[in-house]
């Protein structure tokens, strides 16, 4: 129904406007009696064999919603009705910021892809915390970043603010230093500043009565030497794991209109499928499976998800695939996992 009826209509309009429209519609429908239970009956697959215990947390199924979709923690309860085992909110920054100028979101229909240069647009961590207090049992990841105006030498302070604010309201943290849409952010992926950042957060984490898992989200554009550095950093800082991968700045082998493909920003969707899986496999094999990996990037079918799990991912996340394929994709993946 989604791909045949809804998607063709939605794809006639500006992507960011459609995003806000669908948020409103899901919220409205979820307030109508019976609709939440109807969504759950159609899309959720409840089976104890789908449960996964990863970095000390129990996920009712291994299919999550990636960060960027519910940036401000406005719809996580409602989105969980579509069958997600967990929802990652953010990226959140200490202060609210508008993000980059519009238009900043572009569909590449021929490639089943999206280019975005949103720029961490969000209402700030404090507002999100108020919404997270209304959580109805959804397992939540908190993806944190720095404000655009914060220089890299002060970035650690921004991450600390978000960490402290979210600590009591999320189940795990994700340190985002891999978005291509905040100036100079990716420089924080270099070994020295990244080690300092993660060690600082881990020190704060250890001060807590019940420390939370801290993960690192990395770019797909890292070289093998840089990925080996990531393995060393995970070992040295003792963080819980890695999310592989964020969006790519590569524009190889695209079929869509060159006027669109040349837009600046991070590319997500099918063109990222193979590279994300390669990164997962490299990290898993070279580290001898030393830490959990959440696989994300170009998952548009159950087979795509299975390949990432076979490559070494413990969990997977959807974003662009969810937009192109609809919520049935979550059910398809979980059903396929049960069959396999």
UniProtKB/TrEMBL annotation:
Record: residues binding FMN: 67-71, 91, 143, 176, 217, 245, 269, 298, 319-320
UniProt entry tagged with the keyword Ribosomal protein: no
Cofactor comment: Binds 1 FMN per subunit.
One GO process term, biological-process aspect: 'de novo' UMP biosynthetic process
Active site positions: 179 (nucleophile)
Enzyme class, first EC level, given as a word: oxidoreductase
Catalysed reaction, written as an equation: (S)-dihydroorotate + a quinone = orotate + a quinol
Subcellular location: Cell membrane; Membrane
Predominant place of localization: membrane
Membrane topology according to the record: Peripheral membrane protein
Cofactors: FMN
Record's keyword terms, sorted: Cell membrane, Flavoprotein, FMN, Membrane, Oxidoreductase, Pyrimidine biosynthesis
EC number(s) per entry: 1.3.5.2
Residues annotated as binding substrate: 71, 116-120, 176, 181, 246-247
HAMAP family, sorted: DHO_dh_type2
PANTHER family attached to this UniProt entry: DIHYDROOROTATE DEHYDROGENASE (QUINONE), MITOCHONDRIAL, DIHYDROOROTATE DEHYDROGENASE (QUINONE), MITOCHONDRIAL-RELATED
Subunit structure: Monomer.
Protein name according to UniProt: Dihydroorotate dehydrogenase (quinone)
Species annotation: Aquimarina algicola
Lineage: Bacteria, Pseudomonadati, Bacteroidota, Flavobacteriia, Flavobacteriales
């Amino acid at each position: 129904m989604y791909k045949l009826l809804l998607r063709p209509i939605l794809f006639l309009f500006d992507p960011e406007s459609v995003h806000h429209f669908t948020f409103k519609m899901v919220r409205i429908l979820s307030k109508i009696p019976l609709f939440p239970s109807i969504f759950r009956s159609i899309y959720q697959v409840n089976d104890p064999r789908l449960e996964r215990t990863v970095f000390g947390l129990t996920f009712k199924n291994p299919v999550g919603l990636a960060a960027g979709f519910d940036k401000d923690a406005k719809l996580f309860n409602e989105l969980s009705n579509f069958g997600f085992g967990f929802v990652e909110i953010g990226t959140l920054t200490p202060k609210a910021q508008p993000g980059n100028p519009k238009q900043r979101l572009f569909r590449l229909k021929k490639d089943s892809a999206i280019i975005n240069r949103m720029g961490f647009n969000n209402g700030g961590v404090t507002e999100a915390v108020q919404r997270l207090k209304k959580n109805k049992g959804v397992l939540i990841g908190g993806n944190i970043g720095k404000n655009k105006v914060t220089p890299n030498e002060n970035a650690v302070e921004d991450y600390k603010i978000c960490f402290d604010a979210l600590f009591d309201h999320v189940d795990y943290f994700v340190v985002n230093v891999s978005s291509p849409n905040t100036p100079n952010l990716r420089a924080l992926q270099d070994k020295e500043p990244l080690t300092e950042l993660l060690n600082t957060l881990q020190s704060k984490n250890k001060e807590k009565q019940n420390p939370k898992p801290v993960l690192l989200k990395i770019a797909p554009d890292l070289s093998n030497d840089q990925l080996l550095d990531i393995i060393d950093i995970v070992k040295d800082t003792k963080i819980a794991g890695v999310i592989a991968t964020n969006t790519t700045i590569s524009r190889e082998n695209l079929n869509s209109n060159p006027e669109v493909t040349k837009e600046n920003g991070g590319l997500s969707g099918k063109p990222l499928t193979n590279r994300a899986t390669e990164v997962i496999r490299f990290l898993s094999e070279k580290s001898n499976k030393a830490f959990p990996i959440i696989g994300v990037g170009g998952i548009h079918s159950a087979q795509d998800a299975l390949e990432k799990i076979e490559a070494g991912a413990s969990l997977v996340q959807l974003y662009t695939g969810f937009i192109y394929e609809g919520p049935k994709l979550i059910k398809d993946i979980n059903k396929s996992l049960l069959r396999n």
